[in-house]
Amino acid sequence: MSSKSVTTRSPAHNPWRLGGLTVAELGRRLWHESREDELFGRAAQLSYYALLALFPALIFLTALMGLFSAQNYMPELMSYLRNVLPADALSMVRRFLSQIAEGSGANILSLGALGALWASSSGVTAIMDALNVVYDVKEDSRPFWRSRLTAMVLTLALAGFVILALTLVLYGSSIGTWIADFVGLGTVFAWGWSILQWPVIIALMLLVVDAVYYVCPDIEQEWRWVTPGSVFAVTMWVVVSLGFKAYVDNFGDYNKVYGSIAGVIVLMLWLYWSGMVLLLGGEINAEIEQVATTRQKRRAETRKQRQAA
Description:
By secondary structure, the chain is mainly alpha-helical. 78% of the residues lie in helices and 0% in strands. It contains ten helices and no strands. α7 packs across α8. The longest helix has 47 residues, at 262-308. The two termini are 35 Å apart.
């Protein structure tokens, strides 16, 4: 594996310059490092943890929707999920949500929250381990309890993002109408809000992915609101989700091969590719950071040599 500096990880550079690399050079380094860091296997590990965390999280969210009388929005939520999830996976999620919705309440809410927090934090811990490998560092400065606490805090932050995104999706038109009536702009503002909510959701996704890249690896680095890795991860997640859905719905007949567990297989494949693009985005940031750091050191050494001469 290539050696990546840990002590001087935060040079003042513009990541959009790609560390001086061309797109082709960055692509070659990305392919080589993704094989060296075993990202394909680590993405499979993330999909396993994500599947374990998914259903406790759905229990929590469905119970929460039941307490706030949001069950009427379930068909609308399914229509949005239909845009990114293949039909088999969507059918399995719909059946699960329908069963949980019948028992929504405070008890199932607390049980779902505890289960989701523990299972999801295990998934975040796996992301932390994978990004440490991507950055070629070890979990040295953070003891076990701090790593787990960090994973739980990040899990809660991710849950907050999901709830906020669901609120914008399910209540976006109602919020837009209320704001339009309040400021007196009528239907024009409400129509604009219905379009604006999607860029807001994309911006939130970029923010969350950048937060993952900033918090998870055990290194010191500068905070950046938008990075090439986060843009790649979010863009490719949308492309992969839409492409995988189109393939499964039109060409892949999983039911003939896997029968009743086709939905689970399709869902795990979707989670696998989602984890893969997340790790690839981190690899892109790590490679840019490494090249920029190396070149900055060389320039500093060259200046010293010139001054000494």
